[in-house]
Amino acid sequence: MDYISTRGSAPALDFAGATLAGLASDGGLYVPRTWPKFSQDEIAAMAGLPYAELAQKIMLPFVEGSLSAERLLELTRAAYGRFAHAAVTPLKQLDQQQWLLELFHGPTLAFKDVALQLLGLLFEEFLARSEQNLTIVGATSGDTGSAAIDAVAGRAKIDIFMLHPRGRVSDVQRRQMTTVLAPNVHNIAIEGSFDDAQAMVKRMFNDNGMTDRFAIGAVNSINWARLMAQVVYYFAAALQLGAPQRKVAFSVPTGNFGDVFAGYVAAQMGLPIERLIVATNVNDILHRALSTGDYSQGTVTPTAAPSMDIQVSSNFERLLFDVGGRDGKALAEQMAGFEATKAMQLTNAQREGAAALFSSARADADDMNRAIRWAFVECGETIDPHTAIGLHAARVAGIAADIPVVTLATAHPAKFTDAVEHATGIRPTLPTRVGDLFEREERLTALPGDYDAVADYVSAHATPRP
Ligand SMILES: Cc1ncc(COP(=O)(O)O)c(C=O)c1O
Ligand SMILES: N[C@@H](CCOP(=O)(O)O)C(=O)O
């Protein structure tokens, strides 16, 4: 399988190359040249497989040429062996129609572990084959950072620099990052929003002064391998609910559009998905884009679901590329217009292509609190604010009653204790596997929201190319 850029002019790479490159050199995102397809019989035969084996089957076509089937299975077994639930991503029924897919049983209590536990192993595998080292530069609104740091802390040939918006992540999220004291881990708190941090990261990939000296790598969902690993749990959930004979809808709390784009990939591979519901908080650029075609960047409003306080949604570009006819040159012009003006209109083809599978809904604080309370009082489930936004959208989406609707439960409620306590009156407790998080020493560097300050810091602390 080879990978092409959404902006059409970067060289095509194999899976190992795309994994180490992260972002394409023309500023685009890598996507597989074609979507692998499974027949309905092949999908039916996957029912009942242990998660690591299912993961190997789904991902094998994407890694062809870079990993053997046997090696991939070793890696999926190692990655998912660290999860605290035997099913890895267990499914729970809430009522006749609504289900939760719990994605937070990994080491850092959010769905990011599902992909990043594997990505850490993939980096190690591919770096061992070459002289190269990797300078990972990432942006986080709280969850990617901790999951990525857990996945690469202490690994040879890797330095990680993780930027988070100062004061805009929860205490648990911050401490999960800043209490990891391995020498290859560098936490940077910047002034500004997640979008500011993400823009700096993307700029660094296109800064020749930096890329000549350092092999910059990505752990954000701009890295294709992240999305590939997230495709698996759509299959896992749908198979349990009767796929491929029965269709299933998914509601996905969305920020950077990575998680829900993985659902789109599952559908392209043959999984019968009724609908993908994009659930946003009041930072609703995606809801506006999907419902009106207007993709224009608003100011970020801090909310109780901080991981989704995002107004520039990286992976939307992958969808626009695919539903807009895979015309890299035209998309490069469209994205250049967005970068210059902070606004763009979707073309008719993009709107119609997206509407075939996606719906959207926006939840404000009241909607979110009501959904937390409904799950708690009516179903006995404590859910986190991000999951609550997904659940709100799932319940108002108007999906036919005989179709199950699965909300992706993206974080453990104890990552957002204040918001959950506010809605339920009960303060959730952290699972014992995170240990003495609040006793540990923290280490981080505060920097202004200024690209040069961040680039100088990375230059001073990263290991140059050999
Ligand atoms: C808990 C949680 N839920 C949902 C999201 C949104 O996921 P995505 O950015 O893949 O759309 C994030 C972060 O991105 C998150 O951390
Ligand atoms: N919510 C994310 C934001 C970064 O998204 P990513 O999926 O592109 O890494 C976070 O928790 O950091």
TrEMBL record:
<dbReference type="Pfam" id="PF00291">
    <property type="entry name" value="PALP"/>
</dbReference>
<dbReference type="InterPro" id="IPR001926">
    <property type="entry name" value="TrpB-like_PALP"/>
</dbReference>
<dbReference type="InterPro" id="IPR037158">
    <property type="entry name" value="Thr_synth_N_sf"/>
</dbReference>
<dbReference type="InterPro" id="IPR000634">
    <property type="entry name" value="Ser/Thr_deHydtase_PyrdxlP-BS"/>
</dbReference>
<keyword id="KW-0663">Pyridoxal phosphate</keyword>
<feature type="domain" description="Threonine synthase N-terminal">
    <location>
        <begin position="3"/>
        <end position="80"/>
    </location>
</feature>
<comment type="pathway">
    <text>Amino-acid biosynthesis; L-threonine biosynthesis; L-threonine from L-aspartate: step 5/5.</text>
</comment>
<dbReference type="InterPro" id="IPR051166">
    <property type="entry name" value="Threonine_Synthase"/>
</dbReference>
<comment type="similarity">
    <text>Belongs to the threonine synthase family.</text>
</comment>
<dbReference type="GO" id="GO:0004795">
    <property type="term" value="F:threonine synthase activity"/>
</dbReference>
<dbReference type="InterPro" id="IPR036052">
    <property type="entry name" value="TrpB-like_PALP_sf"/>
</dbReference>
<keyword id="KW-0028">Amino-acid biosynthesis</keyword>
<dbReference type="InterPro" id="IPR004450">
    <property type="entry name" value="Thr_synthase-like"/>
</dbReference>
<dbReference type="Pfam" id="PF14821">
    <property type="entry name" value="Thr_synth_N"/>
</dbReference>
<dbReference type="GO" id="GO:0009088">
    <property type="term" value="P:threonine biosynthetic process"/>
</dbReference>
<keyword id="KW-0456">Lyase</keyword>
<keyword id="KW-0791">Threonine biosynthesis</keyword>
<protein>
    <recommendedName>
        <fullName>Threonine synthase</fullName>
        <ecNumber>4.2.3.1</ecNumber>
    </recommendedName>
</protein>
<feature type="modified residue" description="N6-(pyridoxal phosphate)lysine">
    <location>
        <position position="112"/>
    </location>
</feature>
<feature type="domain" description="Tryptophan synthase beta chain-like PALP">
    <location>
        <begin position="88"/>
        <end position="361"/>
    </location>
</feature>
<dbReference type="InterPro" id="IPR029144">
    <property type="entry name" value="Thr_synth_N"/>
</dbReference>
<dbReference type="Pfam" id="PF24857">
    <property type="entry name" value="THR4_C"/>
</dbReference>
<dbReference type="GO" id="GO:0030170">
    <property type="term" value="F:pyridoxal phosphate binding"/>
</dbReference>
